[in-house]
Amino acid sequence: MTLQERLSALSELGRRLQLPDDYLDAVIHRTAFNNGWFTPENQRKAIQAIATRMLDADKLHAWAGRYFLPDAPALKTVGLVMAGNIPLVGWHDVQCVFTAGHRAQIKLSDKDQYLLPCLLRMLEQIDARTAAYFEMVHQLRDFDAVIATGSNNTSRYFESYFAHVPHIIRRNRNAVAVLDGSESAEALAALGDDVFRFFGLGCRNVSKIYVPQDYDFMPLLNALHEYREIVLHDKYKNNFDYNFALYTLNKTPFYMAGSVMLTENAGFSSRIAALHYERYDKVAALEQQLSAHRDAIQCVIGRPGLLAHTEVIAFGRAQEPELWDYADGVDTMQFLLLLG
To answer: Any idea which fold 3-171 has?
Structure first.
């Protein structure tokens, strides 16, 4: 397939994902049964984001136009070890490999076994030639490069196991938000979406906030309280109750909204149904601190212009990355093009 044919197939997939599809609906319900965190609502949000932000024809061509992409590159096999923290979290890697004209050898996560094969089946219905670009495997073999996503512990294993080939190894990261007390009620409500979408399980979910020394938490707590229905989900409620019991028994000070508990903690990764906060004195010093820990931070959320030298994403947009917003700041397409 030529580059134009690959892009056309992807854009047509984006169009079809926005139409009613009984088979896709069945796969969504099967996935929800297999993994209680993947509710039908969250799966549809993930699919909608892919359809409108990653498979839009104009965005596809603008993204591809940033690179010199030959029609017929030297075909390489790229192993993909997929994460399973949120629905279709590895789609962007699959799309990059296909767009670059390489073949993806995919090891699915047990937590997300059905959605990606469904999308690739739809892509094959659009153009049967796409089937040659994808293979589902239980174990990677005979690959030329690898893109693997895992925890900080598994990433060390990946670094050793895949050391003999070009690779991208992704570790734990989280999003943080910087507040200065001037945020509107609408902005704080949008921040709630950055915290709670996908139950906070994504690397782009806000798990920690930075606030001024004299910060008034009440407006934030009121905004987060509006997401209280999230505790109706059994798995989330179990975590919420566990945090409450743990903080109470340990006499850990905390703020509580109906949806989450906030504790003062320097760590970036918070437990499910918990949110860390840390106070700061001066924005300039905070920005230096963020830069020093950039390997632990996926993205920074806040008011545009608050930080002078750090890219800041607007409230409510953490889980809406563009095609060129690469995980961990590593340009996946450039990596693939260097394979030859």
So the answer is: Aldehyde Dehydrogenase; Chain A, domain 1 (3.40.605)
